[in-house]
Amino acid sequence: MAAPNTYSTVVSWAKIILPLVALGLLSTLFLFSRTPDPNRAIPFAAVDVEELAREQRLGNPRFAGTLPDGREVIFTAERAAPVAGDPNLIEADGVEARIDMTERIILLVVAGGGLFDLRAQMADLAQSVQLTTSDGYQLSTEELHFELRASTVDAPGNVALTGPGVELTAGRMQISSVDGNDVVVFNEGVRVLYAPRD
User: Fold this and answer.
1) How far apart are CA 41 and CA 136, in angstroms?
2) In the prediction, which pLDDT does 110 show?
3) SS3 letters across 124-178
4) What is the pLDDT of residues 165-180, one digit of tens each?
5) Residue 27, by phi and psi: left (phi above 0), alpha (psi -120 to 50) or beta?
6) What's the predicted TM-score (pTM) here?
7) Is the distance from CB of 99 to CB of 83 less than 8 angstroms?
8) Which segments within the chain are labelled E, that is strand?
9) pLDDT tens for residues 114-171?
Protein backbone atom coordinates (compact mmCIF):
# COMPACT_ATOMS: atom_id res chain seq x y z
CA MET A 1 0.00 0.00 0.00
CA ALA A 2 3.08 2.27 0.35
CA ALA A 3 3.73 2.44 -3.37
CA PRO A 4 0.32 3.82 -4.36
CA ASN A 5 0.54 6.42 -1.57
CA THR A 6 4.00 7.50 -2.74
CA TYR A 7 2.84 7.73 -6.35
CA SER A 8 -0.23 9.77 -5.40
CA THR A 9 1.93 12.09 -3.30
CA VAL A 10 4.42 12.69 -6.15
CA VAL A 11 1.61 13.40 -8.62
CA SER A 12 -0.06 15.80 -6.20
CA TRP A 13 3.18 17.72 -5.61
CA ALA A 14 3.96 17.75 -9.35
CA LYS A 15 0.63 19.42 -10.06
CA ILE A 16 1.66 22.24 -7.75
CA ILE A 17 5.42 22.52 -8.39
CA LEU A 18 5.46 22.32 -12.22
CA PRO A 19 3.08 25.27 -12.81
CA LEU A 20 5.07 27.32 -10.26
CA VAL A 21 8.34 26.50 -12.08
CA ALA A 22 6.80 27.48 -15.42
CA LEU A 23 5.55 30.75 -13.93
CA GLY A 24 9.00 31.46 -12.54
CA LEU A 25 10.65 30.87 -15.94
CA LEU A 26 8.21 33.20 -17.69
CA SER A 27 8.69 35.96 -15.11
CA THR A 28 12.46 35.60 -15.51
CA LEU A 29 12.16 36.08 -19.27
CA PHE A 30 10.15 39.26 -18.84
CA LEU A 31 12.17 40.70 -15.96
CA PHE A 32 15.61 40.18 -17.49
CA SER A 33 14.84 40.74 -21.16
CA ARG A 34 16.63 43.68 -22.77
CA THR A 35 14.89 46.47 -24.66
CA PRO A 36 15.18 46.02 -28.45
CA ASP A 37 17.98 47.89 -30.19
CA PRO A 38 16.58 49.65 -33.30
CA ASN A 39 20.06 49.67 -34.83
CA ARG A 40 20.10 45.86 -34.84
CA ALA A 41 16.70 45.51 -36.48
CA ILE A 42 16.35 43.48 -39.65
CA PRO A 43 17.05 45.83 -42.59
CA PHE A 44 14.29 46.34 -45.13
CA ALA A 45 14.64 47.42 -48.75
CA ALA A 46 14.70 51.16 -49.21
CA VAL A 47 11.25 51.71 -50.70
CA ASP A 48 9.43 55.01 -51.07
CA VAL A 49 5.99 53.96 -49.82
CA GLU A 50 4.35 57.24 -50.83
CA GLU A 51 5.74 56.91 -54.33
CA LEU A 52 4.49 53.32 -54.64
CA ALA A 53 1.02 54.41 -53.52
CA ARG A 54 1.06 57.31 -55.97
CA GLU A 55 2.36 55.42 -59.00
CA GLN A 56 1.32 52.10 -60.47
CA ARG A 57 4.61 50.49 -61.41
CA LEU A 58 5.64 47.07 -62.64
CA GLY A 59 8.99 45.48 -61.89
CA ASN A 60 10.70 43.55 -64.69
CA PRO A 61 7.75 43.64 -67.13
CA ARG A 62 7.79 41.78 -70.45
CA PHE A 63 6.12 42.96 -73.68
CA ALA A 64 5.90 40.72 -76.71
CA GLY A 65 4.70 41.29 -80.26
CA THR A 66 4.77 39.49 -83.57
CA LEU A 67 5.95 40.78 -86.92
CA PRO A 68 3.75 40.11 -89.98
CA ASP A 69 6.08 37.28 -91.03
CA GLY A 70 5.64 35.53 -87.68
CA ARG A 71 8.90 36.52 -86.01
CA GLU A 72 8.52 37.38 -82.35
CA VAL A 73 9.84 40.58 -80.78
CA ILE A 74 10.33 40.48 -77.01
CA PHE A 75 10.84 43.62 -74.90
CA THR A 76 11.82 43.54 -71.23
CA ALA A 77 12.44 46.41 -68.82
CA GLU A 78 13.66 47.06 -65.31
CA ARG A 79 10.41 48.84 -64.46
CA ALA A 80 7.41 50.33 -66.22
CA ALA A 81 4.37 52.46 -65.44
CA PRO A 82 1.26 53.45 -67.42
CA VAL A 83 1.02 57.00 -68.70
CA ALA A 84 -1.64 58.99 -66.86
CA GLY A 85 -4.84 59.17 -68.89
CA ASP A 86 -4.02 56.38 -71.36
CA PRO A 87 -3.54 52.81 -70.08
CA ASN A 88 -2.34 51.72 -73.53
CA LEU A 89 0.81 53.86 -73.18
CA ILE A 90 3.56 52.42 -71.00
CA GLU A 91 6.74 54.24 -70.00
CA ALA A 92 9.69 51.99 -69.20
CA ASP A 93 13.25 52.27 -67.92
CA GLY A 94 16.17 49.96 -68.68
CA VAL A 95 14.69 48.46 -71.86
CA GLU A 96 16.06 45.42 -73.69
CA ALA A 97 14.69 43.79 -76.83
CA ARG A 98 15.40 40.61 -78.77
CA ILE A 99 14.47 39.93 -82.39
CA ASP A 100 15.27 36.74 -84.28
CA MET A 101 16.28 38.23 -87.62
CA THR A 102 16.97 34.80 -89.17
CA GLU A 103 17.46 31.30 -87.84
CA ARG A 104 21.10 32.14 -87.09
CA ILE A 105 21.16 35.92 -86.55
CA ILE A 106 19.73 37.53 -83.42
CA LEU A 107 19.35 41.29 -82.87
CA LEU A 108 19.65 42.58 -79.31
CA VAL A 109 18.63 46.14 -78.43
CA VAL A 110 19.42 48.02 -75.20
CA ALA A 111 18.08 51.48 -74.32
CA GLY A 112 17.85 53.68 -71.23
CA GLY A 113 14.12 54.21 -71.63
CA GLY A 114 11.14 53.65 -73.87
CA LEU A 115 7.49 54.38 -74.55
CA PHE A 116 5.23 51.50 -75.62
CA ASP A 117 1.89 51.94 -77.40
CA LEU A 118 0.12 48.62 -76.80
CA ARG A 119 -2.86 49.42 -79.04
CA ALA A 120 -0.78 50.51 -82.04
CA GLN A 121 1.98 47.95 -81.37
CA MET A 122 4.69 50.58 -81.51
CA ALA A 123 7.71 51.26 -79.32
CA ASP A 124 9.89 54.37 -79.12
CA LEU A 125 13.28 53.73 -77.51
CA ALA A 126 15.63 56.49 -76.41
CA GLN A 127 18.66 57.30 -74.23
CA SER A 128 21.78 55.73 -75.75
CA VAL A 129 20.20 53.01 -77.87
CA GLN A 130 22.58 50.16 -78.70
CA LEU A 131 21.89 47.44 -81.29
CA THR A 132 24.05 44.34 -81.46
CA THR A 133 23.73 41.42 -83.88
CA SER A 134 25.01 37.93 -83.19
CA ASP A 135 27.21 38.12 -86.31
CA GLY A 136 29.28 41.00 -84.92
CA TYR A 137 27.64 44.32 -85.92
CA GLN A 138 26.99 47.13 -83.44
CA LEU A 139 24.95 50.27 -84.01
CA SER A 140 24.55 53.30 -81.71
CA THR A 141 21.89 55.98 -81.90
CA GLU A 142 19.84 58.16 -79.57
CA GLU A 143 16.34 57.22 -80.71
CA LEU A 144 14.73 54.19 -82.33
CA HIS A 145 11.14 53.73 -83.45
CA PHE A 146 9.65 50.21 -83.82
CA GLU A 147 6.40 49.67 -85.71
CA LEU A 148 5.57 45.99 -85.36
CA ARG A 149 2.50 45.93 -87.63
CA ALA A 150 4.45 47.43 -90.52
CA SER A 151 7.60 45.49 -89.60
CA THR A 152 9.76 48.64 -89.70
CA VAL A 153 12.47 50.20 -87.55
CA ASP A 154 13.42 53.85 -87.92
CA ALA A 155 16.35 55.76 -86.38
CA PRO A 156 15.55 59.42 -87.12
CA GLY A 157 18.87 60.74 -85.78
CA ASN A 158 22.57 60.08 -86.24
CA VAL A 159 23.70 56.46 -86.29
CA ALA A 160 27.15 54.90 -86.01
CA LEU A 161 27.72 51.33 -87.20
CA THR A 162 30.76 49.12 -86.71
CA GLY A 163 31.21 45.54 -87.79
CA PRO A 164 33.53 43.07 -89.44
CA GLY A 165 35.58 45.22 -91.84
CA VAL A 166 33.22 48.22 -91.91
CA GLU A 167 32.59 51.52 -90.14
CA LEU A 168 29.61 53.66 -91.11
CA THR A 169 28.00 56.88 -89.95
CA ALA A 170 24.76 58.39 -91.25
CA GLY A 171 22.08 60.90 -90.34
CA ARG A 172 19.27 58.35 -90.46
CA MET A 173 18.54 54.65 -90.78
CA GLN A 174 15.47 52.64 -91.77
CA ILE A 175 14.90 48.89 -91.63
CA SER A 176 11.95 47.36 -93.45
CA SER A 177 10.84 43.98 -94.72
CA VAL A 178 10.67 43.58 -98.50
CA ASP A 179 9.55 40.26 -99.95
CA GLY A 180 10.49 38.49 -96.72
CA ASN A 181 13.96 40.04 -96.56
CA ASP A 182 15.18 42.73 -94.16
CA VAL A 183 16.40 45.81 -96.04
CA VAL A 184 18.53 48.42 -94.22
CA VAL A 185 18.73 51.91 -95.76
CA PHE A 186 21.15 54.61 -94.56
CA ASN A 187 20.81 58.20 -95.76
CA GLU A 188 21.61 61.84 -94.95
CA GLY A 189 25.37 62.24 -95.03
CA VAL A 190 26.44 58.62 -95.20
CA ARG A 191 30.15 57.93 -94.70
CA VAL A 192 31.58 54.42 -95.04
CA LEU A 193 35.04 53.08 -94.28
CA TYR A 194 35.38 49.59 -95.68
CA ALA A 195 38.38 47.34 -95.00
CA PRO A 196 38.12 44.02 -96.84
CA ARG A 197 39.03 41.05 -94.72
CA ASP A 198 41.64 38.60 -95.98
Assistant:
1) 50
2) 94
3) EEEEEEEEEECCCCEEEEEEEEEECCCCEEEECCCEEEEECCEEEEECEEEEEEE
4) 889 999 999 988 777 7
5) alpha
6) 0.65
7) no
8) 58-59, 62-66, 72-76, 79-83, 86-100, 106-117, 122-133, 138-147, 152-155, 159-163, 166-170, 172-178, 181-187, 191-194
9) 998 888 888 899 999 999 988 888 999 999 998 888 888 999 999 999 988 889 999 9
